[in-house]
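Listing S7. Sequence submitted for prediction.
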Amino acid sequence: MKCQQIKLRTFVIRKITMKTTRNTAARSAILDLINDSHVALSQPSIQHKLNGLCDRVTIYRVLDRLLDDGLIHKIVNVNGVVNYAACNSCNHKHEHGHDHEHVHFSCRVCNELTCLDQVTPSFLLPEGFQAEETFFTISGICKNCQNSNE
């Protein structure tokens, strides 16, 4: 009986260790990419920048884990594509509620999606409605594209 308990404990410890250390190279690379980017990145752009380090499924798993850990947030652009950005304005890691909401700007020229942390949206829902997640995206021409056309 004692031998079985030791084997079970060893199995559980190995599983926990594998779970927490799995994909560390991919996790580090993806988090670095997102943290170093001044715009939100889509999964295909992340995969392209990783240059074969990991496959699509691994990228999505890592992104889900980073979302759960509160290190990144997701943004849906005007075309319905999900993008990911660093949580620069968060004071907390795990609860992305109304304190975290900010506006995102989608440039129709360069297609970049930028977090505008300094702009705080507000809205008032009718009675009986409760917001759980919001996406504020403004479409237009970013300052870089405007400056390049002058």
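Caption to Listing S7: primary sequence and predicted structure tokens for the chain studied. The two ends are 79 Å apart (CA to CA). DSSP finds five helices and six strands in the chain.
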